[in-house]
Amino acid sequence: MSGNEGRLLDATTLRAWCATALDALGRAREEIDSINVYPVADGDTGTNLYLTSEAAFRAVEAVFEAYGDDASPAAGPGLDGVARAMAHGALVGARGNSGTILAQLLRGAAQVLVEAPGEAVDGVVLAAALRRAAGAAYEAVAHPVEGTVLTVASAAAHGCPSEEADCRVVARAAYDAARDALERTPGQLAALGRAGVVDAGGRGFVAVLAALVAALGGEPFAGGPVARPERWQPRHPETSRGEPGGNGARAGGTGNADDAAFGGDVARGGGVAGRDVARGGDVARGDVARGDDEASRDVARRGSGDVACRDTEEWDGSGPGYEVIYLLDAEDEAVARLRAGLDALGESLVVVGGDGLWHVHVHVDDAGAAVEAGIEAGRPHRVRITHFASDAARPAPASGERVPRAIVAVVPGEGLAELYAEAGAATVPARPGELPGSGELAEAVRRAHAHEVVLLPNDAALHHTAAAAARDARHLGVRVAVIPTRSAVQGVAALAVHEAERRFDEDVVAMTSAAGATRYAELAVAEHRSWTSVGICQAGDVLGLIDGDVVVIGQDVAAIARTVLDRMLAAGGEMVTLVLGEDCPETLADDLERHVRAHHLAVDTVVYEGGRDAALLLVGVE
What we know:
622 residues; alpha/beta; five-stranded mixed β-sheet
């Protein structure tokens, strides 16, 4: 709160709500996953809600970072700007059916908050926001089903008092009504009744409302009323299995150094200034869309070729086989036609968004046709296709015997992902502008099903995120070590010396030493004009970065690459690793190998194809 004792909702309280909701969903994630039986029993509703909430939280934190944490409330961001960031972050980061609906709930609420005059709103406006949220969610779902999160959200909206009341009273009334509605869901939806569980999405939304009550200082939950610390940081401890809204409403503080750091660079979009320039990391504006029409058409042509697989052992083969999700740049009229087309193709259709940017979710048998429909409507990007059942890629079941040790690595590029997989690592994709969240990393560690896990973040912006994921995994009894790799080439060096037969600590030390002995560089294309450590770059300039800092700017990719290599090898080196992105000139690898042979004696060169989503060029020198 910000001194109004729960009477009003302002920017600071909205920030607290986002942070508390992330904490609440982090605590309840595993519980929600375990009761996920509708529409597909794939056990990921809690994880998807958590990742969507994390995207909203990070976008809000980026707005406050832009103003500076020491800014006074009067000099800080306004309620409208924070509400827009929350909605936009959730929209571009929505995961799965449940996350897409949560994004629309937040967007609906934000629409009312943005339009309200002043820097704070009262209970009447908050009630209107909750009603708009429920209405927007119903509008987004092609075929609403009662007994789901839609029912719970509607009950929360109708539970708000009609007379004037403090925000705290409104939030508590909405929460109580939602919790009552959640308890009735098994009697409204046959799948829930047979399984003897409440709706997983509804359970998640109750946790979000519990966080709102806590952020407003309402009825104390475990942990007491929430006060805004100077630098808000959520924690993600073990899952609470209490009743809806119990421990999930507690907000974390800054109990240790790791907690204090979590949400800093990561919330801003991470990375050094030069890297942000190259990647266009404007997180506050949400400019994180990737890809182009040709990339999307390639996915559509190959159908299920670009498929991520998840653990769906409980999927019985009935219903569509693929989940397709993408962001779409399109006009309203085109989206109306798209809805009709996708509705005929599959089920569980949810389309949310507006103002030219949409998030599309559908379950289909023909994944390529779903993407083609998006291409006809506008420009799809950040395409995700998930096969509900793949025996080849399914991780070991939780009931099986754990393996002794596993490696989990964040990897940019399909080619590098194959290289890491061949070396025995489980990979988490990192796409331009779309770094994975701590929940996604924690889930990857869990799915590795090992007693010991080595986590390679491979990006400086992910170090705090990886530390948070490791804390989550440790609560599940997994021993996790994070090696602070800052580039995928450092991860390659660490993998090269990995020996599973060694004691865990010795293996971690050896891998850390190999990674630390590898200098790294990257070539990237500037997306906009900006200052760098070596001067001003223009959009389209080629940037050469060494150890995260821009050292040279130019137009010729080969010339920039040679300059970077010479600077790195000036201090010595025995091995050069080159990872080529799909946009690299075809002759670049041969040119650089000849250059190294001619100018640097006794230095070997190894070349890998990074493929799509990889940087233009990655360089490692050991």
